[in-house]
Input
Amino acid sequence: MPSSASARTLLCGLLLLGSNSLAEGPTGDTPEVPRAAPPLSGMPARRLNLDHFVGGGVNPTVAEYKVRISDTRRLGQSEELLWRDTFLGLGGQVRLNPCYAAVGPMVNWQPIAVFNLKALVDAYGFFGTAGMLQSFRSPLDEYSDAVQRANTASQQTYGTLGWHAMLQPTLQAQVGPIALQNVVTLDYFNMRLRGDDTLWYDAGPDTLLPGRGLMLTEEVNLVYFAGPLTLGATFRYLLPFYDEENFRPGEDVKAANNANMRLGALVAYTFKDGGYSSFNHPTAFLTATWHVRHRYRAGQETSQAIPFVGLGFAFQQDFVF
Output
């Protein structure tokens, strides 16, 4: 079994690739994961934690580097299973990719081992490069890969600014080498869009998002730890919320079909467990998730047999006070 920190770092990267958090523009966040609680004696009372991730994928094409920095403090002294792995982390994260840069503060609170709550606010700027940002007037507009390539060729991409807020409660449990996690993420966006456009495309959620509005994501992850090797399955359902103002006059507000669903597998290998040290838990991973539901990738324009495939690498740094 990997240690608590090892499991967290490993699966943060895995779920990042398999969900809406890889190179997604300013949406989403890397979820905490179910993990084995270590003995209390092995948990520092306070540490400065840095989680690094770099990765990319295709269908859609994404790439990102992320670093998360947190002053993490143990909350209790109990050796009981439900109470010994509790903490409060205050910090922030920085994300960089060819399309944008994002930075903002973050709170990560785990008052009991089976429940985690994360909150994040970040500001970001798009560079107008690599085919992003592209905005649209209505949820009924076409935003396929072919349409976006044409928009890029005709120089319809542009740079802009905005901010994003996220609230993410997580339920998690582990029995022996098997861990189960349910993550619900509520995102709010406030984007500065061009003209009378009300929506924008983000490659991570892979759909049209409201310039000012909400998105809900539900993720279920089941993993099996086999020493340094981790195998698992992941499911994601994503639903953007649209108001009447997102539609053109006379359009059917019930005709939007921009929710999507993925189901797939993941595998990872952690090369060493360095404990709470300045370089630990280097992990490489691969994920493949198939589009069960998508406006373009479930057989309409791209074969449903072609998955989203992601590769990545993550490692962790801990500086104990």
